[in-house]
C-alpha cells in the first residue's frame, strides 16, 4: 500500500489505448485516486481516446488512510471523502458517465460502457 501510484490508472490506460487502439482499455481505481486524474477525461474527449474508467466509491483516500494505519495508530485525518457524482462530472466533460448502486448492475454497465 505504500507504492504511491495514486491517480495512475486513467493516464496509464490512455497510453495503452493510444498504443493499441483496437483493444478495449479499462482503468480501475478508487474514488480518491480517480479524483487526482479526472481532468484527463477532457484529454480523452479532445484527443478521441475512448477508454473506460471504473471508479470504486469507497469514500476515502485509501492509500493515505493505509499510511495512517501503519504510522499513526489508526488516527485518520483528512482521508475520508464525500464524493460528487463522477458520472455527472464525466458528462460535463462531454464524456459518458454511468452510475451503479448495486453489484448486480456492474456487468451490464461495463458492457454498455465498452460499446460507447
Task: Describe it.
The chain is mainly alpha-helical and 116 residues long. A two-stranded parallel ribbon has the order 1-2. The protein starts with 8 loop residues before the first helix and ends with a helix. The protein has 6 helices and 2 strands. It has one domain: 3-Layer(aba) Sandwich (Rossmann fold). It is 46% helix and 9% strand.
Descriptors for this entry?
single chain, 116 residues, mainly alpha, Rossmann fold, two-stranded parallel ribbon, 2 strands
> What is the architecture at the second tier of CATH?
3-Layer(aba) Sandwich
- Please write the CATH class name: Alpha Beta
Number of domains: 1
Overall pLDDT confidence: 89
- Give me the Rg, rounded: 15 Å
- CATH topology name: Rossmann fold
Order of helices and strands: HEHHEHHH
Helix content: 40-55%
Shape: globular
Number of DSSP helical runs = 6
